[in-house]
Amino acid sequence: MHNELFLGPQPLGRDEVVAVARGGARVRLNELAEQRIAATREHIAALAAEQRPVYGVSTGFGALAVRHIPADRRAALQQAFVRSHAAGAGEPVEPEVVRAQMLLRLHTIATGHTGVRPETAQALTSLLNAGIVPVVHEHGSLGCSGDLAPLASVALALTGEGEVFDATGQRKPAAAALAEAGIEPVALAEKEGLALTNGTDGMLGMLVLALADIAALLDVADLTAAMSVEALLGTDRPFAADLQGLRPHPGQATSAERMATLLANSPIVASHRGPDCPLVQDAYSMRCAPQVHGAARDTAEHAAAVAERELAAAIDNPVVLDDGRIESNGNFHGAPLGYVLDFLAIALADVANMCERRTDRMLDVARSHGLPAFLADDPGVDSGHMIAHYTQAGIASELKRVAAPASVDSIPTSAMQEDHVSMGWSAARKLRRAVDGLTTVLAVELLTAARALDLRAPLEPGPATGAAREVLRTRVPGPGPDRHVAPEITAAEELIRDGTIHAAAETRRSA
């Protein structure tokens, strides 16, 4: 994990974004970034002294770009811009999202294409390193002209206005938090208000964070699917490499290999492998798990490629080019991000749907091959996991609604100047809900499959699936009379989120 990140014009790594957003890694501008920032600012200062109109320097914004601003009002223009654009509403978004967007805005500044002054860049660096998180509201971005309201809330905090959470998480006026941290509020100069807000940083930050979570969740999905196959007396034969090679999708091969090795040396699987077994082929939710999980993996790989291109980008409008020209452009449009954010939500909904189907199968006496109804201790008196499945099914259905794409929507704004928008921020927000939802869906399958494996005694699960079950048993007891289930779901979620379940299985998975 990175303890300190040196920012410059070079592309950012996804792990670096996660380290700053979640891990609290500190940030510094490298020497090249400082040089480029200073050189670009000289171009802006020269333009600010001229009479010819330059968007963001000597004109209004959006549909007001036709309004010429006199030289003595151009600094006030920037502060007014930030105040008016910090117009979000709703609950504050998560601190990790705000930290990610702060880092990504600072990275664009470090490329030397924005015209922000060196002292403003240093102030944003100090804000990040002090652990001060501006209050950014849920609603306010259309994903075009950048994440305007979310980034304006950060810029407003830099000027000592608005509200923030300090390093202890206490919500307070920005002026007080900056004073406590020894950070001088910024008096914005020409173009700076626009440069601090005109980027896709919020949606990109959420994509990068989601990709880290999704990679871990898909590994867990392979594990819980393997546990369910084992618990349902399924076979591992469809996961063989030669069968998977007939359809050469890389994600599918990865998931199939993982499931095969997770089930290796399983006494339960071996117990019904003989020619007298009447189970000819398993249900799709078991047999086709690598195809679905693998398609989700390939979707994530495509999204990661988009994220990496964005992490090499400098998003601003207008932008200062290396030869000193300042040009308007459309690079702030969030379509590339919006599409993959929506695509990932679709993939996660389908993984959750398949997971729910396996869980339901374990609870149904007609399809579970000898397990008690709902895995209850005394069916009728006890309900077992009946309602845990309801919770899982409800979330799986919610994820299908969340999978409805935001990026196909557009709503004209700014007096039709901004007549097509990406809705990428909305796509990112619902993807975060999908990640949380899939975590809970997997937690319920984990609980159910582990309980079913217990009920297969005296047969034992394989080394890898058994290790996962044993770790779960440190937090959740085995089968018995009904008890309060909600805390058990929470415990399983925690073991998934912190990587404990995955690590336990990996240590015993056959290479």
TrEMBL record:
It catalyses: L-histidine = trans-urocanate + NH4(+). GO terms for molecular function: histidine ammonia-lyase activity. PROSITE patterns: PAL_HISTIDASE. It is found in: Cytoplasm. It is an enzyme of class 4 (lyase). Its EC number is 4.3.1.3. Keywords: Histidine metabolism, Lyase. It holds the Pfam family Lyase_aromatic. Pathway: Amino-acid degradation; L-histidine degradation into L-glutamate; N-formimidoyl-L-glutamate from L-histidine: step 1/3. Gene3D superfamilies: Fumarase/aspartase (Central domain), Fumarase/aspartase (N-terminal domain). PANTHER family: HISTIDINE AMMONIA-LYASE. Belongs to the PAL/histidase family. This is Histidine ammonia-lyase.
